[in-house]
Amino acid sequence: MSKLNRDILFLIFEEFLNDSRSLFSCLIVNRLWCETAIPILWRNPWRYEISYNNESLFYDIVSYLTDDIKEFLTEQGIKLPSTSHKSFLFDYLSYCGSINISIINTIISRSTKIITSYTQFLLQQEIYKVLIKKCLELKCLDIISIKHQIFYFPEANTRLNLLCELTCSTSIDPSYFYGLSRICQKIQRLIIINTIPKANHGIVKLIEVQKNLKYFEWEDDFDEIFFIDPYEDIFMALTKRADTLNHLKVIFQFIDDYEHTFLQKVLPELHNLRTLKIDDLTLSNESSLKKLFYRDLEIFKIDYIEIQTATCIVENSGGYLRKILLKYCSYDNFNEDSLVLIRTIYKNCPLIEDLSLVFSSSVDHFIEFEKLLLTCKQLKSLLLIKNSIVDDNDQMSNEDKFSDGEELLKILIRSAPNNLREIRFFDNFKISLESLGSFLEGWRGRPSLSILTSDPVYEGENYINLVKKYKDDGVIKDFRREI
């Protein structure tokens, strides 16, 4: 390791980007390791789980304030940590490519004794100014709790012009986004937290001026039902960026079916999507949705979606789907629709890795399921949901319920691909102690398996003892119940 050059060390350390303990430990090995790790740590220093009661990060930032600014803040009653004029070994902020306003405000409030909101405002302003000035390659900006018009600061035009990622809130005044729109036109990732029940036309403008918007994320975060539509103008603006937009992730809250008609206008326009995630919303069998063509789609996740609609989207995809994670719903003809879905997946998704399936316990369903396992060799995670309504599960005997589970496990032993690492059994698949033991013994010699279930029966003592035995043998990596 001592002979590794700087470039090799840099590549190795980047693998520890999410492991702050290992990355911090590199600082004390030797000077070369320290010099290599510092730029990685300071690329986004706000991401690490450190105690903001510790004043070291605040001390580093305050050290960049000029003497006249420190004197001004002191005169306003703000007690700053004493800093020496001795220069740092590194120009830390020059490596920083991210500003997170919420975390910076937390650091300020915990590291100083500020009496009034006015003095807090003053200190925040000076900290933001020095960050805008010194962060030479600013890429990511989180302004959810912003109160300062940073686009008027010195160097703002130069820094914000390079911005690639913006996280913001709909509670920010529209005029703020108008100001950003003058400068920030190269945003690739836009993440919006929707906190107020009205449209924000400043965000609409910000979307419209982007030249390379690739990722759009929207999350509702409020506590009341509202009757004003905050969605349509913003989501319709996305259609103007359809040529570049690859990833759409949406989490709705308190939205009724009649309110999401805008999606039936928007989704057909976003033809270059690779990721389509929509949570807490039912997509019905609208004819426009059945005609969706996403030739590059890789991740498909929607709550909830009718089986026929899901089948059409899978069939019209380009064969690149890696994740299909859906909560299916069907009001008629469930058995046939679900069979068609399974066939469509194994005919059109050779690269599938994560998959959720809902089906009945018919012979045809088990036959088609085995064909899927034999065809989809890349499958790593499988969620199986048995439809209780169609199977009239309440009238089934325990023997029939366990028989279905036994048949399912036999198919998995015979035909599961070697890459399979996780199986989730939810709702009405029941597995007897004997069948589970036979399955785990048959799995011996393969990679360790994680099993998740929602049934409390597996918390019984006999099941626990059986699972422990195969965990100790390395057959099972994890076995737990999720509600």
Automatic annotation (TrEMBL):
Taxonomic superkingdom: Eukaryota
UniProt-listed Gene3D superfamilies: Ribonuclease Inhibitor
InterPro entries: LRR_dom_sf
Protein name as catalogued: F-box domain-containing protein
Lineage summary: Eukaryota, Fungi, Fungi incertae sedis, Mucoromycota, Glomeromycotina
